[in-house]
Predict the structure.
Amino acid sequence: MKIAVIGGTGLIGTRLVARLAADGHEVVSASRATGVDSYTGEGLAEALAGAIAVIDVSNSGYLDERGAKDFFYGSTLNLLTYGAAAGVRHHLALSVVGTDRLARTERGYFAAKAAQEQLIRRSGQPYTIVHATQFFEFLPHIADAATSRDTVRLADALVQPMAADDVAAAVADTATGSPLNGIVEFAGPEQFRLEEIVRRALQMRRDPREVVEDPLARYFGTDLDERELLPGSDATIAPTRFDEWLAATGRPVGGASAGSAPAAVSAPSAVSAPSAVSAPSAD
Ligand SMILES: NC(=O)c1ccc[n+]([C@@H]2O[C@H](COP(=O)([O-])OP(=O)(O)OC[C@H]3O[C@@H](n4cnc5c(N)ncnc54)[C@H](OP(=O)(O)O)[C@@H]3O)[C@@H](O)[C@H]2O)c1
């Protein structure tokens, strides 16, 4: 099956392209680096020719709100238009758990993702929107966006993050199945306080920034309630735990609490994948 991966050179895209190719699919890795610009349309007709599925794992910057809205709107419209012309039978886009809730802040990143989702839902084309929780690999970027004078200020929220490899596996499986014409959620196997897991991710990189919980801190332009980043009870739970991922990345672990068990604060209540529940509930 021919599959076009938009954003095929990104964090998720590279993993996805490799996985789909290993499964025997004909994969087109499309991004500006490979001569395809989904925003301007350059190279898009050629990239989508003969594709059965289009997987959109492209991204704009997280901090440029206007840029994000322009990008996701223009790019998604192009992908849907060129996709329909090419006879694409499944449009899949990767988005973020809680986007609908977090989009209430009109000019934030999540408003841009919500507009992307709305365009897809209203396109009349067969689609699936995959909602994933925060990637382990993304935690340092959360810190960067929340840093002021060497202090990282994070909302008192819970997260249930997952490994980029697990995201790619979830997206690949979903894309090669039938379109669901709806949203499907994926999340990691453990919950953490946002501040705790970001601190651990920085320790791993020997990053000296102080991390503090601040109830008024915003998350990519949006205020945050405690459970808003968490998936619903029917989310599929990915296998890789944070400690396993840390060990597999092979980076030096620093800091006083490095090497200790992560402060997972509760287990998901409903899971649909094996080896997901192991942390005691502290809710
Ligand atoms: N970060 C998280 O924790 C998280 C959680 C859930 C969902 N998501 C979603 O996951 C998606 C992928 O994230 P990621 O971290 O893998 O992104 P990423 O590493 O930043 O990669 C973005 C990709 O988009 C491509 N791209 C950018 N502008 C393009 C354009 N005009 N035309 C074609 N390709 C373009 C980039 O390649 P070029 O620069 O070469 O064009 C790159 O391949 C995003 O939509 C994000 O909302 C993220």
